[in-house]
Design brief:
Keywords: Monooxygenase, Oxidoreductase. It contains 12 helices and 13 strands. With about 375 residues, the protein is of the alpha/beta class. β8, α6 (about 185-195) and β9 (about 195-200) form a beta-alpha-beta unit.
Length: about 375
Amino acid sequence: MQFGIFTVGDVTPDPTTGRTPTERERIKAMVAIALKAEEVGLDVFATGEHHNPPFVPSSPTTMLGYIAARTEKLILSTSTTLITTNDPVKIAEDFAMLQHLADGRVDLMMGRGNTGPVYPWFGKDIRQGINLAVENYALLHRLWREDVVDWEGKFRTPLQGFTSTPRPLDDVPPFVWHGSIRSPEIAEQAAYYGDGFFHNNIFWPAEHTRRMVELYRNRYAHYGHGTPEQAIVGLGGQVFMRKNSQDAVREFRPYFDNAPVYGHGPSLEDFTEQTPLTVGSPQQVIEKTLSFREYAGDYQRQLFLMDHAGLPLKTVLEQLDLLGEEVVPVLRKEFANGRPAGVPDAPTHRSLLAAKEKEAAAV
């Protein structure tokens, strides 16, 4: 099982000081967080994609390429690649290039995003969001697997005899997760292709997450990719920790109360009771994260959101120390206990290449 962090790259004032970091400071902080993730033994760093203030990660492959040059083991991912507004040809080429630079330590998560105005900025119609996601990914899937593509669709100009370059490393496309909070069509899409399904899991109650994951698992089996238990599932989560739970609550409360995504809404206590957000001690984070298996089954990837709402970099790095030293080692051990033998590990470039070579040898 893989553990890591994801960032949305928000530039938010620190409510305790009133200071807002510059865009440069925020970008540099995201890099520092990625390097810290590798240092403390995490597996994955994932960045979102946004094209509007107050967010800065408009070019994920630029950032991930820079991080690739400064890390050795960390898997570099997106927590959203906007399949709706990006040209699938450009996605194919950008991420294949990143694959080569990072020696295969790359995957990506397709999503529609949650910012409506981005559609017209890139010449798209938000009313076609699902259709764009379906058509664009169908083309991207082919571009990575066929050397020469002839294609015609509704939303972009046709392709005739087109080859995207560079070709995927070792002729193995990056593994794709399809991320969604509320759209069953995206769970269906992930199942159809036998790709991974990532449920953000940071705003919604457990029963909603259960329904979405079960839909994906059942449809994955329907399309003949394996049993429901063999489907590839990832979950998000949010945590804030201190050694003493009361200290964690006291320190995090002003950030929660003023956060752009949920500030001035439900109380911190209500939100932690009704969603996966955990604010407390490392042991409380361990216990709540382990409970995810009760409604999502045995899954492959757990990512945490830790650097949002104006939290200063120093605090985030302290959080990563706690996560790497006290939380993740226990989670690795406990999630492995009772894990059925037939449940696969999270795909990596190495495992996908080995499967490809095994399949070729069997022909």
